[in-house]
Write a structure and sequence with these properties.
The longest helix is centred in the N-terminal third of the chain and has 13 residues. It is built from eight helices and nine strands. Helix content is about 40%, strand content about 20%. Helix 4 packs parallel to helix 7 and helix 7 crosses helix 8. It has about 180 residues and is an alpha/beta fold. The chain has a five-stranded mixed sheet. A two-stranded antiparallel sheet has the order 1-2. The protein has one domain: 3-Layer(aba) Sandwich (Glutaredoxin), CATH 3.40.30.10.
Amino acid sequence: MTRLFATLFAALVALPVFAAELGDDGLHKAPWMRDTFKDLGDDLEEATAEGKRLLVLIEQRGCIYCTKMHEEVFVVPEIKQFIEENYFVVQINMFGDVEVTDFDDKAMPEKEAVRRWNAMFTPTMMFFPEESEGELPADELAVVTMPGAFEKGTTLNLLRWVVEKGYETDEPFQKYLARKLGE
């Protein structure tokens, strides 16, 4: 019986643990997130200089859907690697007080920026073009906004569709997703 327990314990210890690390603000922290001054114009320039796309990820403390994304989706090796290679991710706290400077140079606390952008759900992912097209607020400049949590396949394909600039084609994301899932 002792050998059985030892074997079971060894098997449990060998299982990967995907507990998302929480920061002092109660939000999940991933190594691919950038700690910036949250000046979105500067963040876009830096992302473009690195050959990456700017992704603003809006989350809140205690969000069960954010937890799902961090523990079940963002940890999938293919998704994690795709994010690391293609995206410059800035996290915004839906109810935070850290100052954010929007693309139109208006500075405000995170919670006011989120309200301004009409983001009502967490997580929300906002994807931006490689260059700013004038002085617009983030919600008007974003090429794609994904409110809510989605499964692995949908999330990975959305990340790919944005990098491939699918939003500039005649194939909407839903048809792209159906085609990719059918391959």
